[in-house]
Design goal:
Elements: E1 8-13, E2 18-22, H1 24-31, H2 35-44, E3 52-58
Antiparallel strand pairs: 1-2, 1-3
């Protein structure tokens, strides 16, 4: 049984097209980015000049 918590995030590109929904591990693998870059994208939200916008959509309790 896996008790590991895993927040869910949504990823959009610059044109606001939905890229994917998943946890941090799934997203970093799909986008080919590091976990540090991932959390940088999350913390910057709309203010980032990156290719992606990543938002927290479900926080595990």
């Amino acid at each position: 049984m896996n008790n590991k918590r895993s927040n869910q995030y949504v990823v959009y590109d610059k044109e606001e097209n939905l890229i994917m929904v998943g946890n941090s591990a799934e997203i970093t693998e799909k986008l080919g980015i590091t976990i540090g870059t991932f959390y940088s994208y999350v913390s910057r939200g709309d203010s980032s000049n990156s290719n992606y916008r990543i938002y927290l959509i479900k926080e595990d309790e």
